[in-house]
Design a protein that fits this description.
310 residues; 14 strands; alpha+beta
Length: 310
């Protein structure tokens, strides 16, 4: 039978340590150490002295931002294979019009293109050392799965922005604005460029929202930005002309995306696949997540990307 290995995380050592320090007038308050506790205490302190045992609270405090508001707001078709969406871009000639009695209308000529969503692979993995796995807490496995899923969602959010910035799948060139000023006229000009019906949303990081958008005033020195105190969505910081302003910490300072997010197609061909394996060289456990995903903008005029001057 192999020898049991004890260290400062061992429950036997914890109780032994407590019994050893809990003494009054030379008597151990909680009783003498059992044989197992004695072996655990001797083994652990043989070379280093009595160390304080390690206790870990059964929770993990997440300090890494995992926000994907664009992905959350987008339309998700649920297709399982690559697909394309024909887009009617213009009526070149022959639109409906009044005619004289018995006179045929002109033949309609239309312009189409294809929004192709073929799918891109998104992956995320975490390596756990043998020591960490041995010392792991009950919450660790649940946290790992949640962490990987959230980071993949963040990667999907990044893929959406990459598609919005691309000519074939994204925002029309006329709706990409640079060197904008934080002013009411700019806000109105941005909203005027959105040619899509639906609820409008502003996406920006915290710095852009509170050091930029929140300071914009109208001609009567009243702020356009109205802070939100009752919204159930924690990403909503306030509203501008009725449109929700959402925190997206994945964006750079002074970069804002505005528009109707329902026009964003975000398709999960394969939502989330989890796999784990052990590296025989290092004994690390590798937990990996995989998703097949793609995105594009149905209406190139449904969104505006604006870069402001700080």
């Amino acid at each position: 039978m192999s020898e049991i290995i004890y260290n400062a995380q061992s429950p036997e050592y914890r109780t032994a340590w407590l019994k050893n320090i809990a003494q009054r007038d030379g008597q151990k308050i909680f009783g003498e150490l059992t044989e197992t506790e004695q072996r655990a205490f001797t083994f652990t302190t043989a070379n280093s002295g009595a160390v304080v045992p390690t206790e870990t609270l059964n929770r993990i405090v997440e300090l890494v931002q995992s926000m994907a508001p664009m992905y959350d707001d987008a339309t998700k078709p649920g297709m399982t294979k690559g697909f394309g969406v024909p887009r009617h871009k213009a009526i070149v000639a022959g639109d409906a019009a009044a005619t004289d009695e018995g006179v045929a209308n002109d033949d309609e000529q239309d312009t189409f293109d294809l929004l192709a969503l073929d799918g891109v692979e998104i992956k995320k993995h975490v390596e756990i050392t043998r020591k960490m796995q041995w010392q792991s807490i009950d919450a660790f496995e649940a946290w790992l799965t949640s962490h990987i899923a959230k980071r993949i969602a963040v990667a999907k959010d990044a893929q959406i922005r990459a598609r919005l910035d691309a000519v074939a799948t994204g925002i029309a060139g006329a709706n990409v604005l640079t060197a904008q000023t934080y002013a009411e006229a700019t806000v109105r000009a941005i909203l005027a460029k959105i040619k899509e019906a639906g609820t409008k949303v502003w996406y920006a990081n915290t710095n852009t929202i509170w050091n930029g958008l929140a300071g914009i005033q109208d001609g009567n020195d009243r702020p356009l930005f109205v802070p939100s105190t009752t919204d159930s969505d924690p990403t909503v910081q306030g509203r501008i002309y009725g449109g929700a302003v959402k925190v997206d910490e994945n964006l750079a300072d002074n970069v804002v995306y505005v528009g109707v997010p329902a026009s964003i197609l975000a398709n999960d061909f394969e939502d989330l696949f989890m796999q784990n394996s052990i590296d025989p060289k290092t004994f690390k456990t590798i937990i990996a997540g995989y998703s097949l995903f793609d995105a594009g903008l149905e209406n190139p005029l449904a969104m505006v990307k604006a870069t402001f001057t700080a």
